[in-house]
């Protein structure tokens, strides 16, 4: 699968993006064409390049985010019938609250529902106190990364849960919205994050019940 030449990138970065495009091309063969896949991949790459701390991981992050966006677009366009609820957790930096909610939801829902997360002003990394607090519950969110939301991701969600993004939170007709009022864990130590974590777990469990999704252990 050819990838658009990017003279602004190094040879290694171009090769990595070409590999990513091939991976996505195989996964979405028959669903999206080359132009759409490359547009999403390169758009995702440019998004992360603006605030990347470790450039070597950019192609991998771009591939992961492009995959999520393409799956969302497939759902919006009726090209994918997953049949399970999709929940989107949104906060300001996508580094603490929304990531903890995503972690609990993914563990408790298993393959019975899908969750994504995003932020209005994505941070450069996940809040280390949130990572440590979740690790105490046996949930590893260290491999996650702050990312924005996009129109297709919001439109693909059945439920949008907002946590402090205020007027920046997107509003699309036909979505179910919930606003969770929670303290921002930014700058807090693990001890102060634990109550926020516990509140998020309770809310996630209630959300799963409302969706008719059995919660795992």
Automatic annotation (TrEMBL):
<feature type="domain" description="Phosphotyrosine protein phosphatase I">
    <location>
        <begin position="85"/>
        <end position="210"/>
    </location>
</feature>
<dbReference type="InterPro" id="IPR048716">
    <property type="entry name" value="Phosphatase-like_N"/>
</dbReference>
<protein>
    <submittedName>
        <fullName>Protein-tyrosine-phosphatase</fullName>
    </submittedName>
</protein>
<dbReference type="InterPro" id="IPR023485">
    <property type="entry name" value="Ptyr_pPase"/>
</dbReference>
<dbReference type="GO" id="GO:0046685">
    <property type="term" value="P:response to arsenic-containing substance"/>
</dbReference>
<keyword id="KW-0059">Arsenical resistance</keyword>
<dbReference type="Pfam" id="PF01451">
    <property type="entry name" value="LMWPc"/>
</dbReference>
<dbReference type="InterPro" id="IPR036196">
    <property type="entry name" value="Ptyr_pPase_sf"/>
</dbReference>
<dbReference type="Pfam" id="PF21234">
    <property type="entry name" value="Phosphatase-like_N"/>
</dbReference>
């Amino acid at each position: 699968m050819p990838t658009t030449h990017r003279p602004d990138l190094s040879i290694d970065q171009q090769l990595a993006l070409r590999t990513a495009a091939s991976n996505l091309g195989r996964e979405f063969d028959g669903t999206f064409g080359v132009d759409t896949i490359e547009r999403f991949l390169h758009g995702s790459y440019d998004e992360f390049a603006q605030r990347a701390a470790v450039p070597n991981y950019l192609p991998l992050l771009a591939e992961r985010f492009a995959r999520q966006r393409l799956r969302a677009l497939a759902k919006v366009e009726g090209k994918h019938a997953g049949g399970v609820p999709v929940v989107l957790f949104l906060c300001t930096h996508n580094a603490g609250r929304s990531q903890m909610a995503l972690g609990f939801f993914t563990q408790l829902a298993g393959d019975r529902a899908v969750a994504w997360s995003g932020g209005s002003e994505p941070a450069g990394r996940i809040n280390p106190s949130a990572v440590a607090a979740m690790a105490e519950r046996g949930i590893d969110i260290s491999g996650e990364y702050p990312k924005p939301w996009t129109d297709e991701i919001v439109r693909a969600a059945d439920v949008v849960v907002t946590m402090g993004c205020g007027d920046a939170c997107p509003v699309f007709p036909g979505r179910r919205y919930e606003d969770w009022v929670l303290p921002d864990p930014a700058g807090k130590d693990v001890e102060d994050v634990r109550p926020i974590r516990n509140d998020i777990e309770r809310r996630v469990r209630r959300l799963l019940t409302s969706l008719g999704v059995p919660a795992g252990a």
